[in-house]
């Protein structure tokens, strides 16, 4: 998709059911999409939100009794905004489809299966972003065309645009060359009329070949004639172009006042860097643009290398600034020697940066060319005036193909790779290849899967514990357990690094079993040491699918002699919304074991309180978004106070975590929150040594 990963989808949901709307939000969030949801509860609220809030996508219930789909689409259309409407129904039949599409919906989706709805939302959002990007590009194109017109008009080079052999645009220098006053005098005139009679037939054949899409010659010499029939020697240069959206040919015509051979020599000098003899930056960029364009069409692959002598500033201090050109000339000769036999273009790209474009080569060919360049630099001493020195090089290479077919991207990746090679000691190259990145990502994921499997088999997971402190005078020991993975170097890795991979590869339920089993064993040890302790343990949605975890909990409680009341199982609010029936069954099974249930990240949903009508937990962990900057945010204070009051009314305890200062503690105490935790109070660690008295 074209968005950055952290871009939020501004989603409006028109649905009579708050639970169904919440399920949509949870489905998107579970898929890693940041969502800023809106749900109007009435027609007036819908109109107000539509006018006041920026919205990317609207999901609307087909058979809504509050806001009919036709009304929704009509009001969206009236705003003039590009806002796709996705129609939602319980099941798709022909009548529903015709009704929704006829009303103006972009597409129709059933509520289930959730992955289908997710895919359609992604598609609609991606298409919207593509249209927005196209509009931005069109605006830039118009601005670019305006600037190009100004540049063409002010250019001293005679320039014309020709379509099917006819003039459609020409600048003042072109008109003056041929003796015309206004463009209207030659508009629609054939370019053949500007050619001396003896060259007309030859030039006609050239125009035919251009019309058939054949590449133009870089230069074509002939005799031209002006309005008075005067003939003069001229050279034409052709570039395929577009004018006002139509394909055409840009023609630059120059008088041949000089000897042709001398003119060719001058042109050659214009393209070269005088110090190294290589092509200069401008000439090289033209070659790179052609290569990138070919790669974008999928017709070629190329390798680009940026090369710099290592420790350049130290070398300059040693050999003197006056020898800098000699140093670059020697480096250029090594580069040229290394490129011998290759279809390559070498250039001086920067002050002390050389470039090599190896055409029509794959990853292995680019890698081999880079090794040749490294060897050419390191093979022999550099002779620089009266001095000699060993000089190595750092190379940043890029494999140019369809996946990276932009000059700016190619140069950015090459520069980044070259800097990395230099920073790690030099005399090496780094090659960026998008296909290799894909392969590396697959290997990275597989390595993680193997590592997680090994950790489960050999007990390489550990638990850390953070004190949970009562604000209401309870002195019982309560800790929250956090999973950590032992790293090879003794470092402990937090779950955010691997939980997504574990979920995708079906390992979450096994990790849940390990965490719960280890927690129960620790509680048992604490009870036997006469230090009874309550542990809060996170459980993933993977364990809601069947009763295997609750059966395992029952077995472990019995085996370690632990009363179930000491184990609090945390479920994420968003996961409960999308797995409500399974969560209800899980909570009921946990209650039979006297275990308690906590809902974490509570309050982040569209209507979190509605969830409490279907599932009554023992504790609510308030979403950290409401406790950040709590002292300076009146809305968050009001929300926390509402949650605490509602929980007290229902006999549910509340907890706030990630507390970072005393002022926040004071506000939470005033709202009636029961428990708090955070590094301000005590960090997590492998031991349970906090004094709760």
TrEMBL record:
Domain PAS per the UniProt entry, residue ranges: 164-214
PANTHER family according to UniProt: CYCLIC DI-GMP PHOSPHODIESTERASE PDED-RELATED (PTHR33121:SF79), CYCLIC DI-GMP PHOSPHODIESTERASE PDEF (PTHR33121)
UniProt xrefs under InterPro entries: CheY-like_superfamily (IPR011006), Cyclic-di-GMP_PDE-like (IPR050706), EAL_dom (IPR001633), EAL_sf (IPR035919), GGDEF_dom (IPR000160), Nucleotide_cyclase (IPR029787), PAS (IPR000014), PAS-like_dom_sf (IPR035965)
Organism of derivation: Luteimonas colneyensis
SMART domains to which the protein is assigned, alphabetical: EAL, GGDEF, PAS
Record domain GGDEF: where: 300-434
Ranges for domain Response regulatory: 10-126
Residue ranges constituting the EAL domain according to the UniProt record: 445-693
Stated name of the protein: EAL domain-containing protein
Domain of life assignment: Bacteria
């Amino acid at each position: 998709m074209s968005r950055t990963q952290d871009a939020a989808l501004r989603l409006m949901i028109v649905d009579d059911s708050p639970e169904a709307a919440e399920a949509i939000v949870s489905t998107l969030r579970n898929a890693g999409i940041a969502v800023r949801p809106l749900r109007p509860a009435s027609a007036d609220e819908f109109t107000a939100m539509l006018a006041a809030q920026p919205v990317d996508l609207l999901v609307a219930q087909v058979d809504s009794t509050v806001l009919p789909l036709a009304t929704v689409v009509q009001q969206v259309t009236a705003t003039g905004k590009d806002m796709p409407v996705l129609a939602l129904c319980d099941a798709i039949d022909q009548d529903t489809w015709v009704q929704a599409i006829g009303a103006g919906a972009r597409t129709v989706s059933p509520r289930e299966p959730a992955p289908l709805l997710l895919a359609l939302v992604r598609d609609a959002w991606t298409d919207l972003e593509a249209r927005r990007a196209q509009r931005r590009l069109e605006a830039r194109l118009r601005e670019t065309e305006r600037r190009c017109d100004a540049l063409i008009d002010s250019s001293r080079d005679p320039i014309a645009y020709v379509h099917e052999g006819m003039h459609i645009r020409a600048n003042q220098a072109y008109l003056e060359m041929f003796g015309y006053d206004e463009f209207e005098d030659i508009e629609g005139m054939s370019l053949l009329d500007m050619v001396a009679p003896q060259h007309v037939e030859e030039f006609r054949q050239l125009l035919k070949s251009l019309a058939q899409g054949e590449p133009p010659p870089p230069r074509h010499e002939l005799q031209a004639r002006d309005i008075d029939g005067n003939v003069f020697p001229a050279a034409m240069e052709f570039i395929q172009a577009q004018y006002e959206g139509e394909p055409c040919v840009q023609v630059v015509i120059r008088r041949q006042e000089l000897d042709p051979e001398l003119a060719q020599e001058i042109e050659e000098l214009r393209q070269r860097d005088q110090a190294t003899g290589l092509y200069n930056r401008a000439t090289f960029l033209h070659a790179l643009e052609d290569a990138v364009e070919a790669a974008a069409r999928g017709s070629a692959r190329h390798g680009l290398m940026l090369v710099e002598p290592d420790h350049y500033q130290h070398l300059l201090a040693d050999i003197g600034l006056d020898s800098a050109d000699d140093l670059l000339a020697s480096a250029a000769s090594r580069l040229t020697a290394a490129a011998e036999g290759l279809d390559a273009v070498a250039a001086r790209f920067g002050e002390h940066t050389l470039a090599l474009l190896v055409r029509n080569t794959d990853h292995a060919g680019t890698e081999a060319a880079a090794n040749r360049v490294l060897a050419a630099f390191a093979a022999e001493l550099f002779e620089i005036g009266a001095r000699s020195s060993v000089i190595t090089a750092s190379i940043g290479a890029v494999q140019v193909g369809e996946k990276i077919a932009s000059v700016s991207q190619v140069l950015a990746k090459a520069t980044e790779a070259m800097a990395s090679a230099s920073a790690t000691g030099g005399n090496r190259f780094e090659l960026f290849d998008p296909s290799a990145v894909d392969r590396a990502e697959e290997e990275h994921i597989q390595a993680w899967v193997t590592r997680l499997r090994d950790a489960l088999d050999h007990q390489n997971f550990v638990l850390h514990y953070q004190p949970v402190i009562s604000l209401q005078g309870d002195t019982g020991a309560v800790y929250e357990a956090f999973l950590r993975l032992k790293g090879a170097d003794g470092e402990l890795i937090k779950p955010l690094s691997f939980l997504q991979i574990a979920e995708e590869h079906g390992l979450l339920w096994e990790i849940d079993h390990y965490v719960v089993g280890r927690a129960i064993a620790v509680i048992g040890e604490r009870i036997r040491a006469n230090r009874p302790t309550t542990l809060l343990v996170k459980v993933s949605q993977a364990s809601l699918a069947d009763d295997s975890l609750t059966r395992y909990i029952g077995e472990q409680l019995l085996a370690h002699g632990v009363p179930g009341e000491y184990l609090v199982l945390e479920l994420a609010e968003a996961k409960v919304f999308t797995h409500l029936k399974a969560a209800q069954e899980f909570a009921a099974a946990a209650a039979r074991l006297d275990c308690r249930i906590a809902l974490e990240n509570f309050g982040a949903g569209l209507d979190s309180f509605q969830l409490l009508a279907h599932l009554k937990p023992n504790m609510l962990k308030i979403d950290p978004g409401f406790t950040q900057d709590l002292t300076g945010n009146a809305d968050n204070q009001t929300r926390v106070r509402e949650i605490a009051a509602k929980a007290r009314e229902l006999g549910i305890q509340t907890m706030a975590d990630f507390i970072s200062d005393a002022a926040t503690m004071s506000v939470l105490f005033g709202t009636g929150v029961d428990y708090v935790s955070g590094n301000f109070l005590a960090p997590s660690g492998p031991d349970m040594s906090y004094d709760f008295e």
